[in-house]
Design a protein that fits this description.
Elements lengths: L6 H6 L4 E5 L11 E4 L1 H7 L21 H12 L4 E8 L5 E12 L5 E10 L1 H14 L4 H32 L4
Antiparallel strand pairs: 1-2, 1-5, 3-4, 4-5
């Protein structure tokens, strides 16, 4: 009996976000996204039709640690597995703390064919850890920095909602 196995069904139903890219690491255009699964789309807020040939840099923003991103590139160039964590951003601009592994997929040749990233949003877990740290030390710099990123987003959203409400209220007022 031969087992028929559909890898796409498996990838689409994993709970961890999966991204597959080409292997071009140099320049502003690479690497380019070839595939993402449903968990990745849910985590980032992007639609499948929006990500074709874009780079993973679409997730980077103000608080993305460029040293971590540099380490990712260096590990891949050295044929090593990368593991890291940094702030990334959903399509909406909302920050989230992403933990991920990235590694090369090889075919018959010794050159990588693809890079695969297994990505997970760990913001909720890290929030609990950082709250515990603040209970022990209310001036913990790492915990304060963590919450400042989240507060910055919340403040921005509150101001945007307030502006939107004011704009809508002005439109409803009768002309004088």
């Amino acid at each position: 009996m031969q087992l028929k196995f559909d890898w796409l069904i498996v990838l689409e139903n994993l709970r961890r976000g999966i991204m597959v890219t080409d292997t071009i690491l140099q320049g502003p255009s690479g690497p380019r996204i070839i595939y993402v699964n449903r968990a990745w789309l849910k985590m980032t807020g992007y639609g499948r039709d929006e990500i074709g040939l874009l780079t993973p840099r679409i997730l980077q923003g103000k608080h993305t640690d460029q040293a971590v991103v540099g380490s990712l590139k260096q590990k891949l160039l050295n044929r090593e597995v990368f593991h890291g964590q940094t702030w990334n951003y959903r399509k909406s601009g909302e920050p989230f703390l992403m933990n991920w592994y990235c590694y090369a997929i090889y075919g018959e040749r010794p050159k990588p064919m693809y890079y695969v990233a297994e990505q997970e949003d760990v913001t909720e877990l890290q929030t609990l850890r950082m709250k515990e740290r603040l209970v022990i030390n209310p001036s913990d710099p790492e915990a304060l920095a963590f919450f400042s990123v989240l507060k910055e987003w919340t403040t921005t959203q509150t101001k945007a909602a307030s502006w939107k409400e004011k704009t809508q209220t002005r439109r409803r007022l009768p002309p004088t």
